[in-house]
Write a structure and sequence with these properties.
The longest helix is centred in the middle third of the chain and has 17 residues, at 95-111. The protein has helices at 13-23, 25-32, 35-48, 82-92, 95-111, 136-150, 165-173, and strands spanning 2-5, 58-62, 68-76, 119-127, 155-161, 177-186, 189-199. It is α+β, with helices and mostly antiparallel strands. It has a seven-stranded mixed beta sheet. The chain is globular, with a radius of gyration of 16 Å. 42% of the residues lie in helices and 28% in strands. The protein has seven helices and seven strands; from the N terminus they run βαααββααβαβαββ.
């Protein structure tokens, strides 16, 4: 396995986008209806770059045959400049789709970690369904922590849906600890995330 910076000429942007979609299926389906439609919209942002889902923010895990097995979308410090993000959205998507991504950003801001300048943020970690159970998630985290140290960061941060018990167990096994729970309830419906950190 290799973790390498995404090269949009070498690595299939649609495959990368499909993996990003898999990381938050429910949200993307709510706004875009299905995997094909959502993945095509995400692909436009991956290819355009200079946004939180841009190719510059992505590492891919590849096999010996260069098949994409997983992805990591990251940032260092606070998230992207909001004005720049809006410009990229409205330049590369139709107004309705740009608005949908803006709504996702607003919803995410309720649940995701508040970041500091010296944080390394795992925005998305996704493993291809056919490649699960092969240690790829652990590999991404280990390599990401090395990158965080190389960037002089003080902690690695990620968020996990409170219902995603498998991911929570993986993160805790890798040394991440919960530092905050953010949730919203309406009757029996509850949505939320654990904010987790690994001190470097």
């Amino acid at each position: 396995m290799h973790l390498q910076k995404m090269d949009k000429e070498k690595h299939d942007p649609l495959k990368v986008s499909a993996l990003i979609y898999e990381a938050d299926v429910d949200t993307f389906n709510f706004f875009f209806g299905n995997s094909k439609n959502a993945s095509q919209k995400i692909e436009k942002l991956v290819t355009a770059g200079d946004n939180s889902l841009g190719h510059q923010q992505i590492y891919v895990v590849t096999s010996e045959t260069n098949d994409i097995k997983g992805v990591m979308v990251y940032s260092v410090g606070d998230r992207m400049d909001k004005i720049q993000e809006l410009n990229i959205l409205f330049k590369n998507l139709n107004p309705l789709d740009a608005f949908r991504f803006l709504m996702i950003e607003i919803i995410d801001s309720i649940f995701l970690s508040n970041l500091k300048e010296d944080d390394y943020y795992f925005f998305i970690i996704a493993v291809d369904e056919k490649s699960r159970g092969q240690g790829i998630g652990s590999f991404i985290l280990k390599e990401g922590i090395k990158l965080a140290r190389g960037n002089g960061c003080k902690r690695a941060v990620l968020d996990v849906d409170i219902e995603n018990e498998d991911a929570l167990r993986l993160y805790e096994r890798m040394g991440f600890g919960k530092f905050k729970e953010k949730s919203f309830s309406l009757g029996k419906w509850k949505k939320g995330a654990y904010n987790m950190e690994y001190l470097l």
